[in-house]
Structures are given as C-alpha cells and as structure tokens.
Amino acid sequence: MEREVLLDVRDLDVTFGERRKKYEAVKKVNFKIYKGETFGLVGESGSGKTTIGRAIMRIVPSCGGDILYKGDKINGRISAELDRKVIKEIQMIFQDPQASLNERAKVDYIISEGLMNMEKGLGEKERKKRVDQALLDVGLLPEFASRFPHEFSGGQRQRIGIARSLIMNPDFIIADEPISALDVSVRAQVLNLLGDMKKKRQITYLFIAHDLSVMRFITDRIAVIRKGEIVEMAETEELITHALHPYTRALLSAIPMPDPKHEKEKKLLVYDPSVHDYSWEKASWREIRPEHYVLANRKEAEEYKKLYKD
Amino acid sequence: MNQEKILEVNDLDIKFELRGKTLHAIRGISLDLYKGEILAIVGESGSGKSVFTKSFMGLLERNGYVDGGSAVYSGAEDRENVELTAVKREKDWLKIRGHEIAMIMQDPMTSLSPLKTIGVQIMEAVLLHQKVGHSEAKKRTLKYLMDVGIQDPEKRFDQYPHEFSGGMRQRVVIAIAIACNPQILICDEPTTALDVTIQAQILDLIKELRHKYRLSVILITHDLGVVANIADRVAVMYAGDIVEIGTCEDIFYDARHPYTWALLSSLPQVGVKGTDLFSIPGTPPNLYTEIKGDAFAPRNPQALKIDFVKRPPYFEVSPTHKAKTWLLDPRAPKVDPPPVVSKIRNGGLL
C-alpha cells in the first residue's frame, strides 16, 4: 500500500554561527512522515531533535536540503500564499507550559490569537464560539476563557497550549516534549488527549522526546538521532525489540522500568562512538530488516544482519 | 537488612500561614529511616514530599512551622540524639545542615555558583566541615572528584560550572554533599533534569557512594522507574501523608492502596498502544480545608462509605509493608487490585 507522504525532509542541514565558530546542529537528515501517523524523534539533549522541529516550523532557518510539505518546498524563500497555508496547517506544542503562554493575556486571547491573524473577517460571535469549542475539546470549561494562565495547574496549562494549536484546525502538529514537565498522573491525561485528537481529526504528529518508554506508547515509527544525525529508524515495536545500532541499544537499556527485579538485574550499556571504524568506508543509510534503516558501513551491516538471525 | 534507626519521625505536622489562611501541608507522618538504606518517597507535585524532607534541615519557608510531632535524629557519633523539631536557632541548624544531613537539589545549574570554580566550591565544604588545612583540603577535594567519577580532576578543579555538562554538574553537586561528611543524604529529584542514559549513571553513582560512605539516602522522585532501580523501601505520599510504605517488592508486586494502584496504572510503560492510558480522575485535595476521611476517596471510584467519614489507620500487610486504606480492614468487601499489579509481578513489561 502506497501511503501519502505529508512531510518529506531531504538532506536537511542546520548550522549555527559562522566560519570558525560554526556549529552543525543537524547534518544531512532524511525522513518522511506519512499522513495520519505519529512519528517520533528520540535523542538526548543536544542531539538536534528540537532544532529539526524548529526548522520545520521555520523558527530557525535551514542551511541546506529541502523540507517538502504536501509536495511543496517550505524552507527558504516561499510565496506569501504558501506561507499563510503553512502557518495555518502546521502547529506546535511546546515543552514548558509555564513559559509558552503569555502571562499578561487572558486564555481567550491566547487561544484565538492565531485565528485573529489568519481569518481576518471572523466575527466576534463566531470567534467566541470557536474558542469555547476548542476549550471543550481539550477538556476545559468555556468559563476559563476569561482567566489568566497563572490560575491554572501545569496540566491545564498544557491543555491550553494544545487548544491554541487545535483551533487552527491543523493537519500536522509538532509536539516538542509536551509531557516532560508534567506529573505522572497528568502525563496520562495529556497523552490520552493527544491520542484522541489523532483519532478524531486525523492529525499527523511529529513527537519529539527523550523518553523511549513514552515514545513506545504513542508513536508509530521512531527515528533515533544522535549529534545531528539519524542513526536508526524503524516502526516502533520493531525498533524496540530489534534495535541494531549500539546507540539505540544503549538508550533502550537505560529506560527505567517499574519492576524492581528487572531493574536490579539489568545491565547498562554505554555507547562508545569509537566502536565504529569508518576510516576505510563511510557509514551510509542501509535497510537491514524490512522498513528498518540504520546508519552503518558494509561490514557493520553484515554484523547487524546476523544479530537477530535466530 | 540492618535495622538500626537513624531518623525517627512521629506524627509530624507541618503548617503554612498564607494570607491569613492555614495550609496543612504535612498531616501526621510517621516514618523511620534505617541506617544504610535507600528510602524513596514518591508522590505528585504538591503532595508535600519536598516540604517533609526540608523540615529535617530547617529549610522551611518563613511562614511554615512544625505544629506537632517529633523527628529524632540519632546518627551523630559525638553527640546525643537531636530532636529536629526543637532546633530553632540558625546556629544550631548549621551543626546539622550538611554536617549530618546533606541535600542534593533537582537542578544542578541553580545549586552551583557560576562565579566560582568547582574546585573552590567543593573545597569550601571540606574546609567548613572537616578540620583540615588548605593543602589537605585540596587533596581531599581531588579525591572526591575521582569518587564521583570525574576524570582528570586536577584539570577539572579549576573549571567553572558552565564548562560541565548537566550530568557532570550533578556529579559536582554530589561531591559537595559528600564533602560535608553527612550521615543522611537527601536527594530531591536528582535526575529529573537529566537524560535517561545520564540518569542511569547518576543512580549507579548514588548506589556506589552509599556503600563507600555508609550513607542513608532519602530519594524524592515522581518517577517509579527510578524507584524500582534504586530503592530498598518505598513510601507513597498523597496529600501530605504517607498512604503506603513497604519494600520495593511490596510496592511494585503487591500494592494495596488504591492510590498506589492508580499511580502504577498511569505509567506509559504499562500502557497498551492504541488504548487510553489510565488517568486518575479529579485533582488532589485542597489542603487549606480540613480533610475528612481518606484523602484519596473523592478520586477513587471504588471508595467505601467509611472512606468519606473516618481516616484509615495503618493496616499491616506484612512486617515490612503497611498501608492506610480501609480495604485492608477485615470487614471490608474484597476489591481486587487492577490488572497492572499482576502484570508487573509476572514480568509482563517489555
């Protein structure tokens, strides 16, 4: 079955600084996100996962490569018409609900700010109606519209952040660590909410996080990123049960599980980049198992193939 | 396990005065800390877990006070037992803070001074708490740096916090705490700000140091995966009270309190993809008003009538395991634990 590609990232480069102080945050990254799926980007802090999300949102400029959204190139110079379309259809949910909401604005304004900018002819009555509906959609009450962000708990604030992106009726949402700052019990609520929205509105997600246990629960496919390079990509269960790259395996071994016996017996794998010998042949992108890609040279690929023979 | 107590808390009450209202943050906690163990305290934010441990170090905000109960520290070698709730003067606290009980905070960036080299910051603790001269103090500082796993200590000694990564900074903070030569180490969410791989390393370090320096550790966290990794005993806290306490195995394989069940069920690790995760309905109770009965009852769909009337006492499940829930009363109807409990017990994860 041929799936419709919603977002196609090709050879994306993002570099900060110039000349001698140049820092390559994202190096030649390639991935596709299909319509209706939840795609996960996992990596440690400093790996460049947030930068990729921001590059797609066009918050940071890309230095090379293409980002194609529904077939149109959206990085670099684009037409005003496409610009408006992208602003409306791609929305973002931020990590820290404390920092991402305007403290001086009422919820009503926060949620409808996008609407007011994108749909100029909208009447006051219609706008109110949509805000109320957006609040209801995320499990809050319409009365909350007249309050300020500080009157809410962390979980409720994250819901406001979600309502603000949903009101635009987006096709694609980039969620950058949306639950990292939340408590265990509230996490479950927000995860459920995101899952619900996916079912009801066929929203496609790019989910950025460092926690593989959360990723396993919510994503369909995962790409593992390290120092600006994607090292492994596969369907979620495939990646977790048949991890190939040593870095992925190190990440997996570090997931804390709520099982004391398992935790006390577990052996922590530490990733050592010097295990790769790329002096005679550079690593490239190889499909080892069906739909399971890994960054490796020919010799490593052979070894990875043997890994799950039995 | 060595059963010698180092800290004995009895019926501790802590209140805060806020704009003319009284907030009852800790509602009669009794807890023993044994020598050499790692005790984890888990709970949601606002459950009072930080306030509880801060009271052992005299770090409560000015509007907070102990309103009853006792906390006896018996770890000092050269002194008699100290009743921590009776310590009032700052001068007396200085003998306990750091020297007997040390603390590691969540965010290493805010607990280190950006203006001093890390060597100076660690040495400051050595000079204050160990009666040694300058050159000996430096020698010991280098040893502490080695002990917490920082390579090349001579070079690192003269570096500033911004030259360290998050995990390395947390190691420095741990080194400072160790340099005070404490008996009890309180770790307040020590790994929340860190990546999973670094988190695992820091947890291993805490386990290693506990043996090396014969520490008793109180670990505050909301991550049950961390607890399973490191803790000997677990205390589950809800609305200013410990509702269940037991060994790590007791809590993960044989939980009895509905709140512990709810916490375990809401973990993404136990969720089934495509279905909703369990989430606890409602919000934690308002601690400004006096709570009647079991604090968790309003959020517990299976709550009994008595839960709304009378506060449950501790029921003993086994000598190491007790829980505050009427479900354990012999007259209570039989309520089965949710499937997640047996799922974890049978190793049904991953």
UniProtKB/TrEMBL annotation, chain A:
Pfam family, one: oligo_HPY
Coiled-coil features, chain-numbered ranges: none
Keyword ATP-binding: yes
PROSITE patterns: ABC_TRANSPORTER_1, ABC_TRANSPORTER_2
Family as reported in the entry's similarity comment: Belongs to the ABC transporter superfamily.
Biological process per Gene Ontology, one example term: transmembrane transport
Protein name: Peptide ABC transporter ATP-binding protein
Keywords on record: ATP-binding, Nucleotide-binding, Transport
GO function term, MF aspect, one: ATP binding
CDD domains reported in the protein's UniProt record: ABC_NikE_OppD_transporters
PANTHER family: D,D-DIPEPTIDE TRANSPORT ATP-BINDING PROTEIN DDPF-RELATED, TRANSPORT ATP-BINDING PROTEIN
Domain of life: Bacteria
Organism in which the protein naturally occurs: Lacrimispora celerecrescens
ABC transporter domain residues: 9-252
UniProtKB/TrEMBL annotation, chain B:
GO molecular function, one term: ATP hydrolysis activity
Similarity annotation: Belongs to the ABC transporter superfamily.
One Pfam family here: oligo_HPY
Main location: membrane
Name this protein carries in UniProt: Peptide ABC transporter ATP-binding protein
Coiled-coil annotated residue ranges, if any: none
Membrane topology: Peripheral membrane protein
GO cellular component: plasma membrane
Protein keywords: ATP-binding, Cell membrane, Membrane, Nucleotide-binding, Transport
Occurrences of domain ABC transporter (ranges): 9-264
Subcellular location: Cell membrane
GO biological process: peptide transport
